[in-house]
Write a structure and sequence with these properties.
By secondary structure, this protein is of the alpha/beta class. Helix content is 33%, strand content 41%. A seven-stranded mixed sheet has the order 1-4-5-6-7-2-3.
């Protein structure tokens, strides 16, 4: 990796850390108490899960697997899942596939625990939109933070595989 790429990644991580630190220190912010460390995402299943189609359940499972790979820094698995033109929107930063993988690989963002509280899927042709309500425990810029998010994941079907085309975090006030 070139020096200017490393500098760009460090700047983006710094912006993320500052954004998250600002949000978590606001009067409405979540507590930053330490959450139990869990290796697999936790999910609260609703009665709607019993009426999911096979494709919807496949996407829910793929999304859970993605969260596990992110927490375990399985960059090769993530690289295969991410579409080459994918975009990633965090609080205060937008990244390409290579930038997102570099931040995960370097530990600039460490996904410690993702508690999936609810999940839904909407299929539109060969595109799928997965919405996850999560409670995320992460280390960003050396600081552990806990935030509630709605995460929008957009997948596109390529042949027999789903590719993640967009991942966007929206902080909620839960």
């Amino acid at each position: 990796m070139k020096k200017d790429q490393r500098t760009t990644i460090r700047m983006r991580v710094s912006v993320l850390a500052l954004s998250i630190a600002t949000v978590t220190t606001s009067p409405n912010a979540q507590s930053t108490r330490r959450a139990p460390d869990r290796s697999a995402p936790q999910t609260k299943e609703s009665s709607a899960s019993t009426s999911r189609t096979n494709a919807e359940q496949e996407l829910i499972n793929l999304s859970k697997e993605k969260w596990r790979w992110m927490s375990e820094r399985k960059v090769d698995s993530l690289s295969a899942l991410f579409h080459d033109e994918a975009v990633f929107v965090h609080m205060g930063a937008t990244m390409s596939k290579s930038q997102e993988l570099d931040v995960i690989r370097s530990g600039g963002i460490q996904y410690k625990n993702v508690e999936i509280q609810e999940a839904s899927v909407r299929l539109i042709g060969t595109t799928a939109i997965v919405l996850n309500g999560i409670r995320l425990v992460a280390v960003v810029g050396g600081n552990e933070v806990i935030n509630p998010f709605v995460v929008t994941e957009v997948y596109v079907r390529q042949g027999n595989a789903w590719k993640l085309a967009s991942l966007s975090f929206t902080r909620t006030l839960r």
